[in-house]
Design a protein that fits this description.
- The two termini are 24 Å apart.
- Helix 1 packs parallel to helix 3 and helix 2 packs across helix 3.
- This protein has 86 residues and is mainly α.
- It is globular.
Length: 86
Amino acid sequence: MSSALLLTAACAGEAESIAEQYDQGYRFGQGMPATHLGNPTASDDTAAADSECGEHAETDGVETTKHWMAGCIDGALGRPASPPAS
């Protein structure tokens, strides 16, 4: 029974970490001057935001993950926050 509890705890911790990574990226993206990025739903603007987030993160020495980048892109484009469920 203890292995089942350990597995459940590990999954819960991973989900928290994913949400936390997204939130950190989202806040970072909101702080970027992204007014030139345009329409938040256009796929070409998503690519531009991805590039901007990557460049700003590299310049600031921020370690990124795919969840952090998703949050940064959403924040930079002014989209509502939508952290991944898992």
